[in-house]
Amino acid sequence: MSEDISSIIEVADDHMKKAINHLEAELVKIRAGKANPQMLDSLVVDYYGSPTPINQVANVSVMDARTLTIQPWEKNMLQPIERSIIAANIGVTPQNDGAIIRLSLPPLTEERRKELVKKCQGEGEHSKVAIRNIRRDAIEHIKKLEKGGLSEDAAKDAEAEVQTATDKYTGEVEKHLEAKEKEIMSV
Hints:
Blueprint: H1 2-29, E1 44-47, E2 50-53, E3 58-64, E4 67-72, H2 78-88, E5 94-96, E6 101-104, H3 110-147, H4 152-185
Antiparallel strand pairs: 1-2, 3-4, 4-6, 5-6
Helix pairs in contact: 1-3, 1-4, 3-4
């Protein structure tokens, strides 16, 4: 029985870590006024009929604090990349000079910063909901084991352990959100 409990707790912990990793990946995509190549990770380009991530058809690099450059490996990919950026509506207009595409990020207004903070808070809330759902599933498994013959004390201890992990990862979500909000709001 104890190996069942430890595996339930281990699986829940692993899933909660994945929720944190997902949050980190989503927060990186939200720009904080600085150019970051990962802003374009979610963009796909029509590459000879198949949707392909932009970083697989071009070199995306940071020119300076507010400028990204995209240098396609094939010149005929300039137009599809440009169309993809425009269609994504990321708030930046691409400038094509025939060899590379430049993305100049405008400085963020106070209003836009607040919108970005709200977006971050929404991502954080999604992560917290995911963590709570993982906790609920783990506790349901523990209750099934309890009905199957696990002692009440062992079940309570296991539930407390799951709750401790939940609190830990919820705290991590808060730390990530705090750091990202600070990054966005700093001028």
